[in-house]
Design a protein that fits this description.
heterodimer, A: mainly alpha, 2 domains, flat, B: mainly alpha, 2 helices, elongated
């Protein structure tokens, strides 16, 4: 059943690309907006699958009684990375490499901030191991 | 909802570019610019709804 999903998505992507090419030499700004809409639609189509994967991950984590804080932090980092990547790709596709690199820089900083508590926890556990 | 949204926006884009050419022939440059602006704004409203849907779903999934 899942194979049909990818065919639908590839079809949508190809048709969208063709339309974007048509519009690009007349109205480049509309072409950019069209490619943005297509990438949003493809992601929205895939939300159901992502939720399933994350539920399984949470289930495994709770079964292995890993602390929930770590899982939540990992999910937040994935979310930030994804949105940052999404914005950066759109800007780079429009030719704005500078803005794209600034967006990536900001997402790296935010992820660093999220990672600090985990690093501290690791350091504490290491300190306890030392004699 | 999704697939025909792409066709709607593509059709709008093609219609606007054709209509712009007609306006240019009738040497009404400023109307052509206004039409481009209107087209961009219409598509922007659609995009804002989709982005809103994207961000709320990401927020719920990744537990922001």
């Amino acid at each position: 059943m899942e194979a049909l999903e990818i065919i639908q998505i590839v079809g949508l992507g190809l048709i969208g690309t063709i339309f974007t090419m048509i519009i690009k030499n007349y109205k480049p700004e509309l072409a950019l907006q069209l490619s943005l809409v297509i990438s949003l639609i493809i992601f929205i189509l895939m939300i159901g699958r992502i939720v399933v994967v994350i539920d399984v991950m949470r289930e495994l984590a709770s079964r292995a009684n890993i602390d929930l804080i770590y899982i939540n932090t990992i999910l937040k980092v994935i979310g930030i990375a994804y949105i940052g990547e999404f914005g950066a790709q759109i800007c780079r596709d429009a030719g704005e490499g500078i803005i794209a690199s600034k967006i990536e820089f900001a997402s790296k900083v935010l992820i660093m901030i999220l990672g600090i508590p985990i690093m501290l926890a690791i350091l504490d556990s290491i300190m306890q191991l030392l004699p | 909802m999704d697939i025909d949204l792409v066709f709607k926006i593509a059709g709008l884009g093609i219609f606007i570019s054709v209509f712009n050419m007609v306006l240019k022939q009738a040497n009404k440059e400023e109307q052509a610019q206004m039409l481009t602006l209107v087209g961009v704004i219409i598509v922007l409203m659609v995009i804002i709804q989709l982005i809103n849907q994207l961000f709320t779903s990401i927020r719920t999934i990744f537990g922001f």
